[in-house]
Amino acid sequence: MTIDHYAFTYFSEEDKRRYRDEHFPVDLQHAHDLGKRLVEEAKAQ
User: Fold this and answer.
1) Element housing 23 (H / E)
2) CA 10, CA 3: separation in Å to the nearest integer?
C-alpha cells in the first residue's frame, strides 16, 4: 500500500506550493552558506 491510498484533505496543494515557492530560495541560501562555512572551517584545521 502506498500513501496514494490516503486522502490528506488538511494539506492544500496550493498552500504547499506557495510555501515552497516562498521558502525554497531562503533554504537554498542557508544550505549554501552552511556548506561554505564547513569548507572554510575544514581548511582552517
Assistant:
1) helix 13-44
2) 15
Query: Which distant-in-sequence residues (6+ apart) come within 8 Å of 15 by Cβ?
Result: none
One-letter amino acid at 6 equals Y
pLDDT at 11: 76
Q: What is d(CA 6, CA 14) in angstroms, rounded to the nearest whole number?
A: 18
Cell numbers 544550505: residue:
31
> 1-45, pLDDT tens digit by residue?
455 666 667 778 899 999 999 999 999 999 999 999 999 999 999
- 22 to each of 7, 30, 34, 38, how far by Cα in Å? 25, 14, 20, 26
